Sequence to fold (530 residues):
Amino acid sequence: MKACFPRGSATFVAACPPIARTGLRRSAVPMVERVLSLAPSLSRLPRVTLSGQVAGAMRDAVLSGLFRPGQQMNEADLATRFAVSRGPVREAMQRLVQEGLLVGHPHRGVFVVELTEADLADVYLAREAIEGAALRRIAALPDRAALRLRLAAEAERMAEAVAAENWREVADADLAFHRALVDAAASPRLSRMFDTVQAETRLCLHLLMAGYRSSAELAAEHRRLAALATGDDLAAAQAELGRHLADPIHILRRIGAPGSGASAP
Amino acid sequence: MKACFPRGSATFVAACPPIARTGLRRSAVPMVERVLSLAPSLSRLPRVTLSGQVAGAMRDAVLSGLFRPGQQMNEADLATRFAVSRGPVREAMQRLVQEGLLVGHPHRGVFVVELTEADLADVYLAREAIEGAALRRIAALPDRAALRLRLAAEAERMAEAVAAENWREVADADLAFHRALVDAAASPRLSRMFDTVQAETRLCLHLLMAGYRSSAELAAEHRRLAALATGDDLAAAQAELGRHLADPIHILRRIGAPGSGASAP
DNA sequence: CGCCTCCGGATTGTCAACAATCCTACGATC
DNA sequence: GATCGTAGGATTGTTGACAATCCGGAGGCG
Fold:
């Protein structure tokens, strides 16, 4: 989905120096040298365009919190930063607007989205809708053994990260776990919709809590979820998922203000 | 959501003559004359840009079947048809790509999406996920009386259309019913996701069956759904919704080839 | 005969400049 | 003193031209 660009676009320009420009020119990297090295299967190679690279870089920049919420994204400024014309920047920004990371006001500019508490609750409502449907779909699969191993492995990865107190890794493992769950449903549209809300989730995490805290329960929850998702009791799995996704809302409502720590599935 | 453009963008250029151009120039319609007449509330006025108008026109054109599935959308050609430059056309096409109506292949062009039978099943899977979540959400609402009236009215509208064998009107009523259901959940993300799958639904309808047939059961189903959705038995509502949305898949699987008639919720 | 190479046309991607729009602040008027 | 009207500056929207890419077929070679 999402045209034919790779889903997890790599970081091309993480931090953008104001004047000095990093790579990202087609003259420097001839288009002919495709990214042959990391093509996983023998399907269509992902043609790379400047727009796509700029979109990826900007997505990473926004998700990493390099731009504050509500901040305006200046076209000309970004264009000079990336050493690119305004065209690709415009296209990239529009893509991120459609993904929900930016909001665009015609004739005024695009801004980093400001997610309210209501938005956070809505994000998790949408996630429950998507992941719940994925659970239902998974329950109808003939072979769930491979998925069980996969989810268990992700849960272990998270447990180790929690033990090592590597919160960045915890967040990644969390995202990977839920993505694996949704992708297992083999529904392009569920996966596509999940892409959007997962990006918003990352935005919430970074903007509202800036990391993971008090995550003792997290790994255990994911272990349970891995078992239930590939088990035979669909209702129990749904209930566990509901509890799991309701958690951050409760926590957020309890702590109220941002800055303090919180766990987030 | 979706920036601040109106959701159901009106038809600006329904059929586009090859050379002679209809309106759609900013010189012809001074930007100052905003669409004050049909602004429902006193919120932000929707700024109109060429890109947005072109996107609306192209969306209508694709959904109305003016472009065959798989057909390439030529930028220059469309630009001359709309009497605009290629820039706005590019932006509009990218927007429709994100909406799932077109697919883009970098350096090759964008094409009208070709929905397979698997895609149709996937669309209805996604719809069940979204509308099921909406049902759950509605069940938690304090006051469902207004919604009950609204849904019942839509169901009646459909019943009359079925009686009159006005299949175009039946389709519109169907879309309106399900949109009202989802919007009642008051979840921006559910509504946003529903926008996309509903557009794909319309595409399916037009491309696979080109109209409604054998819809005797349709109105009754929607009446039941209206009652159950605003009733107290959530499980029953979910079950009815599942049956309702599974219908077209069964029918399509039975008839196999397109062209023959089918009902579609 | 099949395959590879190369070329031409068509199409898309990108660029830099122009025009329209918006926001802010300043001054005039009541 | 407050409100309205109006320039100024900055930003976005749009345009037309240039460059890169892809697809088709003609031609040569094994």
In short: The longest helix of chain B spans residues 117-139. The radius of gyration of chain B is 20 Å. Chain B has two domains: 1-114, 117-255. Residues 1-40, 257-263 of chain B have pLDDT under 50 and may be disordered.
